[in-house]
Amino acid sequence: MADFGCSYQSRQADTSLAEAPVVIKNFDGYAGNGRLMQQSFNKVPQRVLAVSESVVDDLIFLGVQDRIVAISACYSKNYAPYEEEYAKLTRLTEGTGYPSKEAVLGMQPDLIVSWGSLFGDSALGSVEYWQQKGIHTYVMTNTVPVKASGRRRVEYFVNDLQQLAKIFRVEEKAKDKIVGLKKRIQVLQLQSKATPKANKPKVVTLQYLYGNEYFGRTASDLTADMIALAGGISLDDKLGGRKSVEYLVKLDPDMLIVIDTETTPVADKIKALHAHKVLSRLKAVRNNKIFVVQHRAFYCGSLRTVEAVEAMQKYIEDNF
């Protein structure tokens, strides 16, 4: 394991008590069914474990990457504008796996920022477990159980940025950047509202293809909100998950969003769609109206998400 001691000592001088504690409400993860919990931050976090690229992206966006002692579950392509920052970060684990409790405890973090699934029974356990050990947590809103947060929305990750900015006491420093993000989302909302219904394509999200079944996202997922913001109409099912390809044929969308992941490259999925004896008859496949979204853009939320929606909006404008 890497030696985290030096980096901690170099930051000790920056540790200072806040004028008043920062009190926030945030979620538990899957182990606690996403229940809302209150935390009080008496000082700026100095030793942060950031799990997943989207979380790392958000912390770099806020300019607090110097507080990150390690990252984990970062296995996709780095966000290009942040390559230099990523190169300086220590990886606690490689590949898709989450770190063990022992590994996390060993690095003595004062804050863990991650997805709801990290705080599940099969991973690190509940948020309460870590709070009892004096370790703060922050769970990104778009990753907790939907019954706790409601339908996932692009704007929720901006709310997370605002909360994290409070925790790190960088509200003024990050203010203009966050306002800029809000304006970009507002522009998308106005453009979508102004698009005539006749020009709005009906869209289905496809993440995996298993022969005669496909894996789709749900009507509560972030993809559904991305589609709406881009000027489309989401046909993603309320239940999502694995379904027969015949179900997709009945929907016969004008456009498909195909999710690109490291383990299931999008080129293979698009090739399989065109070669499939049933799915090749889909309107979207026949007309080659397929839009690619990176997994890290659609899950959790980051600057990549806004960029993906802007690109999708232009694609819809140019093709429908």
Mean pLDDT: 92
From the alpha carbons, calculate the radius of gyration and give it in angstroms. Answer: 21 Å
Structural class: alpha/beta
| Total DSSP helices | 14
| SSE sequence, one letter per element | HEEEHEHHEHEHHHEEHEEHEHHEHH
Largest sheet: 6 strands, mixed
User: Which regions are unreliable across 5 or more consecutive residues at pLDDT < 50?
Assistant: 1-18
Strand content: 15-25%
Helical amount among residues, as a percent range? 25-40%
Distance between the termini: 53 Å
Shape: globular
Number of strands: 12
Q: What's this model, at a glance?
A:
Helices cover 40% and strands 21% of the residues. The protein has 320 residues and is an alpha/beta fold. Helix 5 (127-132) links the parallel strand 5 (111-114) and strand 6.
